[in-house]
Amino acid sequence: MSASLQGSLMVDVAGTWLTADDRHLLRQPQVGGLILFARNIEHPRQVRDLCASIRAIRPDLILAVDQEGGRVQRLRQGFVRLPAPGHIAQAASGDAAQALAQACGWIMATEVLAAGLDLSFAPVLDLNHGRSAVIGTRAFGGDVGVATVLAGAFIEGMNQAGMAACGKHFPGHGWAEADSHVAIPVDDRPLETLRAVDMQPFIRLRHRLAAVMPAHVIYPAVDSGPAGFSRRWLQGILRTELGFEGVIFSDDLSMAGAHVVGDAAARIEAALVAGCDMGLVCNDRAAAELALSAAQRLGVAPSPRMGGMRRRAFVTSDYKQQPRWLDALNALRQAGLLEPGA
Description:
Distance between the termini: 41 Å
Radius of gyration: 19 Å
Structural class: alpha/beta
Number of strands: 10
Order of helices and strands: EHEHEEEHHEHEHHEHEHEHH
Number of helices: 11
Shape: globular
Strand content: 5-15%
Largest sheet: 8 strands, parallel
Strand order of the largest sheet: 6-3-2-1-10-9-8-7
């Protein structure tokens, strides 16, 4: 199978090795990616072996993980415990903070690539307004200028390691108080406010982002449905108004914030019709199979944009011997951003 072709559905697997059911699912051409969670991960070598077994079946799949730093960090044992993005601005300012953010992005991407994966869904470009518990310190802060600069430095570090960046959660999840994993968040602010504040990191960094992930948030002043199912948001604003040409990944379509659209078949169809290039259906194999049937019925062609999400560099397992690795870790340690002994 050509390594340039990917389907429009990203799925997951249950454990640390592939079952016969997993292998059958991954062989379906509509499946274009796989995301790992903590349950799939024991240590670096096991992850490399799992990724190798996946690529033996489908070398074209995009292999992803959520490795932001702080509490959202799936790769743990044998990996650096990175600080939450929001702690960087608390530890330093100006050029020093940018250097730390870049070091975090480079370390994260280096470890993820060395484990055999292509992509971490990072960075978070939401603003921390002190309202959303699900965002909080996952954001680089509440100040638009500072958050944008630090996120840009983090992206630079990712790119230097050989990883593309995916900004989330467009147009901004930081104001809505509800957690879209378990509820349907609403942000009642007018579009003018969103453009002037929460959208700014996406606007300013759009040419440096290879991908964007929209929020499962309803912005009723703009559209009655969540942003990830909205042609107004994805086609009218993100594509046309902002001129974004990269990949659009849906957020997990199994989350409660997506259920407003209907069952998994309705969700994947709505996401793809709205403009997502790839829809994620995670933590629910029955839903993934329903979404797969819908994708097969729709017959959506693979997006030509998806190739840009593959790893851009091969990182060997001896990366910890590199001078840059040692320098980056030392910088974070001196700033008090690493756990003792890390």
